[in-house]
């Protein structure tokens, strides 16, 4: 009751400039839930251009705000917390367009949302798209965001106007670049990283690793260290034939598009950067991928995000030495032209239309249907009264 009363009083004192009253209302809600540090960052966002864009975007359409607790924000590196631009980018990464938390998938499946983080210093996705954020629901119903390989617990939820607020116990950090992730020992992809660093694309030029890191939209089926070790004799046999080795490597890559796990399913037609057709099988063991005529390998960890795409870790090497340059360039051209069509994504990214029961599709346009949220209506009514006072 106290917080309702104080918000009436507060709103009555604030000039009823639309944007400002929205922010003040949001700040009230955050403070009322103990999220005082986030509230204070919110009021200082107007100090940067990126922050101003976030503030302008927040009241538009439905939003989901992942709201770190005071403890989480206090643990932030002071060099990050003191960098207003970086902090604005980080906050942008905590806001998802749309409100589809009620459609969350059960782990190991994930729901993926498009955030507001589109700063080209940190994100290089196809078509200038903003970075995505995956989350999931445990078997016991508790929800968590997936960030840099760890689970970030969602401890509680509340609502302000158009924004569902999910309280989280860690700050979500924007994904690093491909070179950083492949070189990070904890992902066990360092053998692949070495091979990609010492092999050039057909036609010469820089290493495949550089080509991957500088791409705008890329998907990698990345064999882990154990997979590379198990395929060592095959790979050594190919070492003298760079054409074949390069073909094998680029048949682990989709060029020009980021394909997240919800889009990977049986019958999905995807073509590698070597021009080979992928096929996918889902069975009791898990999800398998093969390239051309290769043996299938299992995806053991999906949706490892990077600044310019996504990695799915696999437990074997796709031994496909074939190449079809024509098919590769037409797949790239098609991916690029699809990405250039700007579609506002306010539903789960890549969700199949049938699984959401809504008009989703790969553009992720699904929106929640149904009765108006009583909490939102309550807050709207409360604000209306508050502004009349
Ligand atoms: C809350 O949302 C409604 C639309 O649902 C909008 O008309 C209203 O201005 C919003 N309130 C504030 C304070 O922005
Ligand atoms: C940001 O907003 C606060 C009030 O909410 C105001 O005092 C401050 O001058 C603004 N800063 C900028 C840079 O606009
Ligand atoms: C926002 O979500 C509500 C349900 O929570 C839905 O009725 C409404 O259409 C959505 N608005 C937009 C702009 O997507
Ligand atoms: C999500 O589901 C809960 C419980 O069924 C409900 O209270 C809430 O309003 C729903 N949120 C939206 C945005 O539909
Ligand atoms: C995950 O998604 C796949 C493919 O849609 C489905 O077969 C499987 O049952 C789902 N698993 C869970 C735990 O929801
Ligand atoms: C990023 O998104 C904001 C809206 O959130 C928009 O105003 C801005 O133009 C976008 N910037 C780029 C580089 O796409
Ligand atoms: C994340 O949570 C899921 C579901 O509870 C669990 O299976 C998985 O092991 C957790 N991952 C990490 C890195 O803790
Ligand atoms: C969740 O928030 C509600 C209302 O803000 C509060 O009553 C409840 O105690 C909170 N639950 C937890 C587990 O913090
Ligand atoms: C990748 O990120 C690291 C850490 O931010 C940076 O030092 C490095 O220059 C980046 N590499 C490329 C190729 O952009
Ligand atoms: C090298 O591999 C390519 C493609 O796999 C194959 O066509 C070619 O015959 C191989 N060359 C040699 C010398 O084995
Ligand atoms: C992706 O396609 C473009 C255009 O054909 C090409 O320049 C680039 O080298 C390709 N990248 C990879 C990793 O195959
Ligand atoms: C699932 O498919 C893979 C690849 O075809 C196969 O190796 C595995 O034995 C299958 N598992 C089951 C339980 O059928």
From TrEMBL:
The keyword Signal applies. SMART domains: FAS1. PROSITE patterns: FAS1 (PS50213). InterPro entries: Adhesion/Biosynth-related (IPR050904), FAS1_dom_sf (IPR036378), FAS1_domain (IPR000782). Residues 1-19 form the signal peptide. Residues 19-172, 176-318 form the FAS1 domain. It holds the Pfam family Fasciclin. One of its GO terms (cellular component) is extracellular space. It comes from the Eukaryota. Gene3D superfamilies: FAS1 domain. SUPFAM superfamilies: FAS1 domain (SSF82153). Keywords: Signal. This is FAS1 domain-containing protein.
């Amino acid at each position: 009751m106290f917080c309702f009363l104080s918000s009436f009083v507060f709103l009555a004192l604030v000039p009823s400039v639309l944007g400002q009253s929205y922010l003040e209302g949001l700040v009230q809600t955050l403070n009322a839930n103990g999220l005082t540090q986030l509230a204070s960052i919110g009021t200082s966002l107007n100090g940067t251009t990126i922050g101003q864009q976030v503030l302008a975007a927040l009241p538009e359409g439905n939003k989901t705000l992942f709201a770190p607790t005071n403890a989480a924000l206090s643990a932030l590196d002071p060099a990050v917390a003191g960098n207003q631009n970086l902090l604005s980018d980080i906050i942008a990464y905590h806001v998802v367009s749309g409100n589809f938390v009620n459609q969350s998938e059960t782990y190991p499946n994930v729901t993926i949302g498009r955030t507001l983080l589109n700063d080209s210093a940190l994100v290089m996705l196809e078509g200038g798209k903003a970075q995505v954020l995956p989350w999931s629901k445990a078997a016991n119903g508790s929800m968590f965001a997936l960030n840099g390989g760890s689970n970030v617990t969602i401890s509680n939820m509340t609502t302000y106007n158009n924004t569902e607020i999910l309280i989280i116990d860690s700050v979500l950090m924007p994904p690093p670049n491909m070179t950083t992730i492949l070189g990070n020992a904890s992902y066990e992809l360092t053998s692949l990283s070495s091979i990609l660093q010492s092999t050039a694309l057909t036609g010469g030029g820089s290493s495949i690793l550089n080509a991957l890191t500088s791409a705008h939209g890329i998907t990698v089926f990345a064999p882990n260290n154990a997979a590379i070790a198990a395929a060592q004799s095959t790979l050594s046999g190919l070492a003298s034939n760079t054409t074949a080795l390069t073909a094998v490597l680029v048949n682990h890559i989709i060029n020009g598009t980021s394909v997240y796990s919800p889009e990977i399913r049986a019958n999905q037609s995807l073509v590698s950067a070597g021009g080979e057709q992928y096929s996918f099988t889902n069975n009791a063991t898990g999800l398998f991928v093969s390239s051309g005529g290769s043996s299938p390998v299992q995806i053991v960890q999906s949706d490892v995000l990077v600044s310019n795409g996504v990695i799915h870790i696999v437990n074997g090497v796709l031994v496909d030495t074939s190449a079809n340059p024509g098919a590769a360039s037409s797949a790239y051209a098609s991916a690029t032209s699809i990405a250039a069509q700007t579609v506002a994504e306010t539903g789960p990214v890549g969700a199949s239309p049938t699984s959401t029961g809504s008009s989703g599709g790969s553009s992720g346009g699904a929106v929640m249907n149904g009765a108006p949220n009583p909490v939102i209506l309550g807050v709207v009514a409360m604000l209306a009264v508050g502004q009349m006072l």
